[in-house]
Design a protein that fits this description.
The structure holds two protein chains of two kinds. By secondary structure, chain A is of the alpha/beta class. Helix content of chain A is 37%, strand content 25%. In chain A, strand 4 and strand 5 form a beta hairpin. The longest helix of chain A is centred in the last third of the chain and has 16 residues. In chain B, helix 6 packs parallel to helix 12. Chain B is built from 19 helices and no strands. Classes of the chains: A alpha/beta, B mainly alpha.
């Protein structure tokens, strides 16, 4: 469903993403782990078409993001790490607008908004202006706008930022449900608990390079040594920073 | 890498060079035009001289009001909505110091663009009055600088008062109140002095002009700085050295007193009013405007409908936008009302003056369009702000976003200016043939100026700036204004030539060539900026 091939992004003197190869199957819930500045957000922005790769290709649901961006975007829903939304609109107006941008019928938009706003406890304030929203309210609205057109692929950058525990639980459940129903979910996070709880597979990235790829279990028991995900993650990143590479793991092939 | 950097530097240098050339071109062109026009008036005898003085006074009066308005609108975001202020407020810095820094910032932001447009007027008038270099220096240091300063002080005081009042009333009501006050002042100013009829009507009728000027002599209000500036400029024989020094001292002392007053007020009220504004964000409303998103819009496709609805709702919920739009609408209404009053005595005028008035009217309409596009169309892309990702993520090309914005602006502005042209032509008793010709030229002008503003607005986009007025008074905005005025000048010149040939049964081939030239120029103005704009947005990454 998602294919990244030899993907690189160069900013002036910084190589933000370095020859990344990744293949994520339909219905898979994949977490992209990495410390701050590892290249997670840059990778995501290239996947959703907000940035152009310096090298390599991205296919979303079989569509090349550079050559066929509109078809790729049509099947994708995106939640950014910091959701900047039109301040002068109300939440309801923003969702109407987003639904129409995806050529949805007004009746379908209204029905989806009803269902999503009820589940995410937004009904009370959805008619109010976004300028008065808290960070968590904006994040809930961003999730709703990403879910609205029932995309086949969901790309979420730092999903739990600003969410209270109750909403975070609901979002996690919604992501799991969608994944079970065949939606491919790609999450970028540095929150190991989220990755551990939700993911079918995990990819670890640092300095733009993919250092490890596998299931949570495979990360916790490599070479007979029992480590939890946090210990394993820290060890991989530290080793990479010392050696600028990790010889034990296949960096390019999906498991 | 070195090559890349030097390439970027060269490109930037070229951009600055070309833009500076355009700005200097405008200043030089405007200066020459003023000198020519001034010479013509001075050749008409004493009446022409007085007429020129009045024109200069009128010009600076309008600049003074525009400065106050511009300061008010930019001050709103500079003093109260800037994230930098929010950060500074958390530091151990005196609020008065923060206010002072923002005051200077506001002064520079809101004045420099208007100042550039005022330079040709100032230099041209000074040259006609035979001002020496030291007199220019005196006028600049003790006249123009305090003039700008006083406008910023007045606007800052008014702004603090308005924000204070917004505790008790909605911001929309406060801005509406402000709009009504300004409109009232303008209406009284125009209807008492009838200065607009001076520009449009009695130029060929010097007896009427004499009566008009006699009436006007009581209306140069001596308590506003534009009057003092006019007095500072006037030639040696009219104003003695002592009088010049008096007005310089008046300017400097007023500016000094203004500085004391604004500091005193800021010390007591700035933080208080800042807190009032902080509370505004929490106000929430449900309005009938939401229905716009569900409205059918004549069968438009959903994505286009979504963008148009969003643009309309955002415009109507941004007071900086609709208050200024209303004010401009009011200016136009005053102009049309004065034309309808029948002061013009068109029948008494010779054919030459009649044509001149038609052309002036067309130029005026073109100028309105240039002002509207530079002010309202230019910031359209920047106003997407950091929410641009929503459109970038949507399943259609950025070209479509431009097409939607273009037609949205075209529908509103072309309708408005075409209505002004048709109504004014009717009052001026223009023939149907010339009316249709002028309408055709206006259609081309609309296409060119809207595309220019939209395209350059994307090339010079400022996505982190939320104040539309600040966006349009930036560097790219000035380039847009200058290029728009150049287009309007070409368009007016072409229309003059075509009307002359039409009235004198001139060569059809030459008429065709002129029209062809305007069409080619319009195509370039329409196509190139839009192409550059789409390319700039496509390559935009954050």
């Amino acid at each position: 469903m998602i294919k990244l091939k030899n993907l690189s992004k160069q900013f002036a003197t910084t190589l933000a993403v370095n020859n990344l190869n990744l293949h994520i199957e339909k219905g898979e819930l994949f977490s992209f782990l990495g410390p701050n500045g590892a290249g997670k957000t840059t990778t995501i922005k290239m996947m959703v078409g907000l940035m152009t790769p310096s090298n390599g290709t991205i296919h979303m649901g079989g569509f090349n993001v550079e050559k066929d961006p509109q078809k790729a975007k049509f099947i994708t829903g995106y939640v950014p790490d910091a959701a900047f939304l039109y301040q002068h609109l109300s939440g309801l107006e923003l969702l109407m607008m987003v639904g129409q941008l995806y050529s949805m019928d007004n009746k379908d938009i209204t029905r989806e908004i009803e269902a999503l706003s009820e589940r995410l406890f937004m009904k009370e304030w959805i008619g109010h202006r976004i300028s008065g929203y808290s960070q968590g309210m904006k994040q809930r609205l961003a999730f709703t706008s990403a879910f609205l057109h029932s995309p086949e692929i969901l790309i979420i950058d730092e999903p739990m930022v600003g969410l209270d525990p109750k909403t975070a639980r609901i979002i996690k459940d919604m992501l799991k449900e969608r994944s079970k129903n065949g939606v491919t979910v790609f999450i970028s996070t540095h929150n190991l608990n989220v990755a551990e709880e939700l993911s079918d597979r995990i990819g670890i990235i640092n300095r733009g390079k993919l250092l490890g790829l596998g299931t949570v279990d495979s990360f916790e028991s490599v070479a007979g040594v029992q480590e939890n995900l946090e210990e394993r993650f820290l060890r991989i990143v530290e080793e990479e920073e010392l050696t600028e590479g990790h010889p034990d793991l296949d960096e390019t092939q999906p498991s | 890498m070195k090559g890349f950097l030097s390439g970027v530097f060269k490109q930037k240098r070229l951009e600055i060079f070309v833009s500076s050339l355009i700005v200097f071109g405008l200043i030089f062109g405007g200066y020459k035009l003023f000198i020519r026009g001034g010479d013509f008036l001075l050749r008409q005898g004493e009446l022409g001289e007085v007429f020129l003085d009045r024109l200069f006074y009128l010009g600076w009066s309008i600049i003074f009001y525009l400065l106050i308005l511009s300061n008010l609108v930019t001050g709103f975001s500079t003093f109260y909505r800037s994230p930098e202020v929010a950060f500074l407020m958390t530091l151990p810095v005196d609020n008065k110091q923060i206010f002072r820094v923002k005051f200077i910032e506001n002064l520079v932001y809101s004045s420099w663009a208007i100042l550039i447009l005022g330079i040709p007027l100032t230099l041209g008038y000074g040259a006609l009055q035979g001002l020496s270099v030291w007199q220019y220096a005196l006028v600049f240091l003790t006249g123009i600088l305090p003039f700008l300063f006083i406008a910023t002080v007045s606007a800052s005081l008014l702004l603090m008062l308005l924000v204070f009042l917004s505790r008790f009333f909605k911001m929309r009501t406060v801005f509406l109140f402000l709009g009504v006050i300004f409109s009232g002042i303008f209406y009284l100013y125009f209807s008492v002095s009838q200065q607009d009829t001076m520009l449009t009507g009695n130029l060929g009728n010097f007896r009427a002009l004499g009566r008009y000027l006699a009436n006007l002599s009581n209306t140069s209000f001596p308590f506003i700085p534009s009057y003092w500036l006019s007095r500072l400029f006037m030639g040696g024989e009219i104003v003695a050295l002592m009088e010049r020094l008096f007005f310089s001292a008046l300017f400097l002392s007023t500016a000094a007193i203004g500085w004391e007053i604004i500091n005193w007020t800021a010390d007591r009220f700035y933080f208080h009013t800042y807190q009032v504004m902080e509370g505004q964000g929490q106000k929430t409303t449900r309005t009938p405007l939401s229905k716009v998103f569900k409205f059918n819009w004549g069968g438009l496709r959903p994505p286009v409908k979504a963008m148009a609805s969003k643009d309309l709702v955002q415009f109507l919920r941004t007071p900086q936008q609709w208050v200024q739009f209303l004010l401009l609408g009011f200016f136009i209404a005053v102009y049309l009302i004065n034309l309808s009053r029948g002061h013009l005595h068109i029948d008494e005028l010779s054919s030459f003056w009649r044509t001149t008035i038609y052309i002036f009217n067309f130029g005026f309409t073109g100028f309105i369009l240039a002002a509207l596009t530079a002010r309202f169309v230019y910031p359209m892309i920047s106003m997407e702000g950091r929410s641009l990702w929503i459109l970038q993520m949507a399943p259609f090309s950025m070209k479509r976003v431009f097409v939607e914005k273009f037609w949205f602006a075209f529908f509103v502005l072309f309708t408005m200016t075409e209505a002004v042209a048709l109504v004014s032509n009717y009052f001026l008793g223009q023939t149907l043939g010339i009316s249709i010709l002028a309408s055709g030229f206006l259609l081309l002008t609309s296409l060119a100026l809207i595309s220019l503003s939209l395209g350059l607005g994307a090339v010079y986009a400022q996505f982190n700036e939320t104040n539309p007025m600040k966006i349009s008074s930036g560097y790219g905005g000035i380039i847009t204004v200058v290029l728009s005025l150049i287009y309007v000048s070409f368009s007016v010149t072409a229309l003059v030539l075509v009307i002359n040939l039409y009235q004198n049964h001139g060569s059809g081939l030459i008429v065709g060539l002129i029209v062809g030239f305007v069409i080619v120029l319009t195509t370039l103005y329409t196509w190139l900026p839009l192409k550059w704009g789409v390319r700039a947005i496509r390559s935009y990454e954050r």
